[in-house]
Structures are given as structure tokens and as C-alpha cells.
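Design request, C-alpha cells follow.
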């Protein structure tokens, strides 16, 4: 199948590579041409100069974009996906707001296309191994062609049936992840202050009732963050929680713990941690010792 993929960042590049490995005819686009050219040098794929060209050469276009502003530009801009010829099915797999999902779905429908929110859970290693969880804001029957495409990038797809549901649940999942990141950082800081080594403390946490899969695959980031590749930045975590709290405000839902986690992320970003991995909150918390 002719597939377009826009957004070749830490996650998108790995996901697009898995589509190539699955035997699809893939065309890629990225806002910075350097990432696109590096992908083309490493994989058997074609390149597009802008989103419109990406859509014109594809039956389905996937995007993995950083935030609402990027998604608006790629989908609604003058060279955007919605007004382009070609692909009739557009799928965003990043974390964007439910409000923007509704806007893009309406715009796509008016242009005779379909837009699906299908964000993923899993970090860069999961993207590399095609081990992502896909949260699809549609039914399987609506877009049966997506089943094999999602399977090339992930281990499981949950079909949520309603547009925007994927975006909502991605925010809910990321709230838990970022809250756990904060709590683990505090727990390790407390243990260290009491004279317990971080590896020993992490061993206990990882084997306790509080264990979660993210602790295992992020162990090296917590214990030696400076020597690891960035997986998910503090700024992206802050963006996620801002979106989650915005949705909560619209729905009149109180989320005091998430607000506290956001406050810490903002403080860390103000101290220069914005582009560091979210595991750097451990280092930030150590600096907050009283």
C-alpha cells in the first residue's frame, strides 16, 4: 500500500521505518529536511517536499507531530493535508488536544476525507520494536485497512469507536506516566537522602507492588540520565499535562495531583531542564532538597 508519513522525530522515524520493513511503499516528509534526508539514506522510501506532496503520493497518510501548533500547520496550512488531493484517510498518532481532533475531523469531512486520532503509548524502544499500543478514535469496521498498518507499528490496537476518544485516553495515560515519573523521582531522592544507593532503591521499587512496565525500560534513564539518549523531554511532558488540565477544566473535573506534577515540570523547565529527558526530574528534585 502507498503510505505517507509526516513527522520523523524520535518516535515517528522509528514508526515509519517499521512500515517500510512491512513492505509498504512509503513516502516521508519532515519539517526539517535533514531528518527526511537521513531517513531516505537509511531506508527504501521516497521523500516529499511538503505535506500536500505527501498526500498526493499516498492512499493513507500518518503523522506523528509534537503539538497542536504543528498539527494545525500540517493539516490546515496552505500546503496542508486536508485540502490536498490524494490520500482520503489521514491519521494523527501524536498527542494533540481533543478540541483540535474535532476541528480536523470536521475539516477533513468537509473535504471528502476522514481523519482519525490514533495516538500511541510507548517510548522510543517500543516504537523501534513495533511494540506500541495504538488508541484508535474510530471503529475497526470504519477503516479496516488500518488494522494491518497499525499492526506494523504496534503490538495492540484498541478501537475506541468515537472520534477524539484516542486523544482523551492518551492524555489520561500520560497523566499517569508523568505522575509516576514525579513520584519515582521523589522516592529515589528520599531513599538517597537516607543513605540508600539509587540502584538498590530502584531494585526495590521495580520489584514492588508499585512496579510498572515503564520502570523497567526507563531504569537506565533514572540511574544514569546523562549517558542515555533522550526519550521524552520535560517540555513534552509539560505540554501533555497542560492539555490534560485544559480538558479537565472543560469537563469540570478536579485534578489536583496532576496540577502539582505540572507545577514541578514548569519549575524544572524554568531551570533549564526543558530539553532533557523527563527522568531528569530526579536530578531536579535532588536540587530541591531542604
Amino acid at each position: 500500500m502507498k503510505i505517507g508519513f509526516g513527522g520523523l522525530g524520535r518516535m515517528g522515524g522509528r514508526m515509519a521505518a517499521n512500515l517500510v520493513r512491512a513492505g509498504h511503499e512509503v513516502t516521508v516528509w519532515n519539517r526539517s529536511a535533514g531528518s527526511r534526508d537521513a531517513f531516505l539514506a537509511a531506508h527504501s522510501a521516497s521523500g516529499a517536499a511538503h505535506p500536500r506532496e505527501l498526500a498526493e503520493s499516498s492512499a493513507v497518510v500518518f503523522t506523528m507531530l509534537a503539538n497542536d501548533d504543528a498539527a494545525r500547520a500540517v493539516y490546515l496550512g496552505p500546503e496542508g493535508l486536508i485540502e490536498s488531493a490524494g490520500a482520503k484517510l489521514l491519521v494523527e498518532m501524536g498527542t494533540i488536544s481533543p478540541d483540535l481532533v474535532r476541528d480536523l475531523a470536521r475539516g477533513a469531512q468537509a473535504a471528502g476525507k476522514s481523519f482519525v486520532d490514533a495516538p500511541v503509548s510507548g517510548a522510543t524502544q517500543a516504537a523501534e520494536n513495533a511494540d506500541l499500543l495504538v488508541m484508535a478514535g474510530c471503529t475497526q469496521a470504519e477503516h479496516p485497512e488500518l488494522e494491518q498498518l497499525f499492526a506494523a507499528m504496534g503490538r495492540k490496537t484498541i478501537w475506541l469507536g468515537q472520534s477524539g476518544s484516542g486523544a482523551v485516553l492518551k492524555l489520561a495515560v500520560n497523566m499517569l506516566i508523568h505522575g509516576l515519573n514525579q513520584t519515582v523521582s521523589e522516592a529515589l531522592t528520599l531513599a538517597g537522602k537516607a543513605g540508600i544507593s539509587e540502584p538498590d532503591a530502584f531494585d526495590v521499587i521495580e520489584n514492588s507492588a508499585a512496579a510498572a512496565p515503564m520502570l523497567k525500560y526507563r531504569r537506565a534513564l533514572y540511574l544514569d540520565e546523562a549517558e542515555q539518549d533522550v526519550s521524552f523531554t520535560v517540555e513534552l511532558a509539560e505540554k501533555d499535562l497542560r492539555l490534560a488540565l485544559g480538558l479537565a477544566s472543560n469537563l469540570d473535573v478536579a485534578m489536583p495531583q496532576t496540577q502539582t506534577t505540572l507545577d514541578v515540570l514548569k519549575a524544572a523547565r524554568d531551570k533549564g531542564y526543558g530539553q532533557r529527558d523527563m527522568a531528569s526530574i530526579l536530578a531536579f528534585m535532588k536540587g530541591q532538597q531542604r
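Comment from the thread starter after seeing the answer: thanks! Residues 9 and 121 are 15 Å apart (CA to CA).
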